Amino acid sequence: MNTIDTWVARHRERAATLPGAALPWLTGHRRDAIDSFAAAGWPTSRLEAWRHTSLAFLDQQPLIAPEDAPHPATTLAALRADFDDGGHWLVFVDGHFEPTLSVRPPLPAGVTISALSEALARQPEAVEAAFGSAAGDDTAVVSSPYALNLALCSDGAFVHLAPGTALEQPLHLVFIGATGAADSHVRNLILAEANAEANIVEHHLGGGSTLGTVVTRVQAAQDARISHIKLQQQDEQSIHLASIEAEQARGSHFATHSLSFGARLARNDIRTRFDGEGCETLFNGLYHVDGRRHVDHHTLIDHARPHGTSREHYRGLVDGNARGVFAGRIIVAQDAQRTDAVQRCDNLLLSKMAEADARPELEIYADDVKCAHGATVGQIDDNALFYLRTRGVDETHARQLLTYAFAAEVIERIAQDALRRHARATLLARLPGGALLEELL
Amino acid sequence: MLKIDKLHAAVDGKAILNGLDLEVKDGEVHAIMGPNGSGKSTLAQVLAGRDTFEVTAGSVDWDGTDLLALPAEERARAGLFLAFQYPVEIPGVSNAYFLKAAVNAIRRHRGLPEYDAMDFLSRVKAEMKAVGMREEFLYRSVNEGFSGGEKKRNEVLQMALLEPKLAVLDETDSGLDIDALKVVAEGVNRLRSPERSMIVITHYQRLLDYIVPDRVHVLSKGRIVRSGGRELALELEQHGYGWIESGAGAAQAAGAAGG
After folding, report:
1. What residues of B are in contact with residue A376 (Cβ under 8 Å)?
2. Which of A384, A406, A412 sits opposite B88 (nearest CB)?
3. Residue of B nearest to A406 (CA)
4. Which of A79, A434, B160, B166 is 20 to 30 Å from B12 by CA-CA measure?
5. What is the ipTM of this complex?
């Protein structure tokens, strides 16, 4: 007995009530997607891309909706207290849009921010073009969990920025797991036309949904600038499977920051492709896992066109019996001359049983390129520890300070002040001795 | 007073200090000179509490306290300061944070009120001016990307802020040009006081033109083989360390260790 049939049944039960159920192109995509998921099953370690993160256990275990999760309004209030930016907040509970919890101030002309369900009702053609399909397109991560997402996604955000428009304040997309659902599936579409600019933040909080899939697709047209941050902090039952897929036109800039503070298992597939010359991208990430948690970042930066610049920096703090996985692939196409790519992944093991895997993969077909990469797995630097101790700082505090400092370098790359402050506070709240560190900042 | 008695220390089973004796009275400045590999830096690290060195015999008494029984941080709080030969870079920790954490850890131990942010800043800025450090160094990561001279100034700045009873300066002159050397030496001289002792470790006599020691000791193969006044440093400069190692200098020094 496995759970695949259960998922197929779920699709059958929900199909008529999912948003866009009256749109033949979408119902067709969903049917193809569930077929493709059923044929492939959950990825296991036999697949290279899932070597360290098998989902085979999902075959055996039925998902059980957990009990006591805090009320979504409580979770949301705590989060919003960190921001007084007057920005847009779209809130989703267990994958369903909650208009009553959302905050939607007036938008500049040419900017659309709506729930995917709303967009499917009002402008289905715009959604169709960006939606993706189970067969995948050039940028999609073709993997069965994301096919399942397509089949079952119940909502998400739809953002459209007309040429030259800019969102002054970050757009917050809040996904809260609450009691009552064993799974949730959201799909976000972000379409930035030429010269448009926006900061978009995904907050994934709480427990509730035992299995959550998220697909975020970004299209950055010529000279658009999109900054994306994903803050993921969930309880120890949650399984979080997320894909971020970007395509960039000439001269566009895309930054994606992933702060992954655990679930039982969190997987992030992050990729971008340069479709025009002179694109820039920043992939920046921090993961902190303890207990028996597992976090995996799989990235792909496809330098398909010349004069592209990519910077990729991931850092992991791995404690307890936890495991951190990073696999970063960079492809430099034959005509992608003058590519400048840097990739680093550094891990700090905070316990004897912690484990980290870091695997860089560079495929370079052009000859005039600058590509650097490096990966480390290590412990706190003894010299730095001793130096601090000779200045009167006790060993425990010195370790905490060095751990924080290691992680903070990732956070300092977040350009937007309020988001950086929030990320820093979130990290400090998680680290032992955080309060003491905060006092000294 | 610091009294080091027949100190033996080893790293990875290899003996480096072989029965070192030294007494430093309050307010005195002692210079320790010696060739590479004689054990100078090991002595500094052992005094500061580095546990990669194993003390195999001997004792260090500091005003009635068994220094070797204390962990590094407690030695620092009790007033021991080591200026590192190679100050450590700590990416991600601002110098301001680092200095404040250090100063407050030590003030707490001494029963003094901790500085608030404003008081601390005005104090640290005054001290930075004295050692010729620009204010921007407060907001940079500890020693990261600092030049050799900037790192050493940062060490002297820390010493000034932490107001130690015993300061050990491990080759603070190495890698400095003459201007930087003068600034560092001035910083050290400013801190000389009847309550504060200093051990100045150096390979070269040059530093002792600027920091005039009360006593000079020559270290060879993990022992002090000769002690004298500041003229000993000049003698060494003339003859080179070969003079000591050949035994000629050492023979004259029998029983001369101590202050």
Report:
1. none
2. A384
3. B92
4. B166
5. 0.94
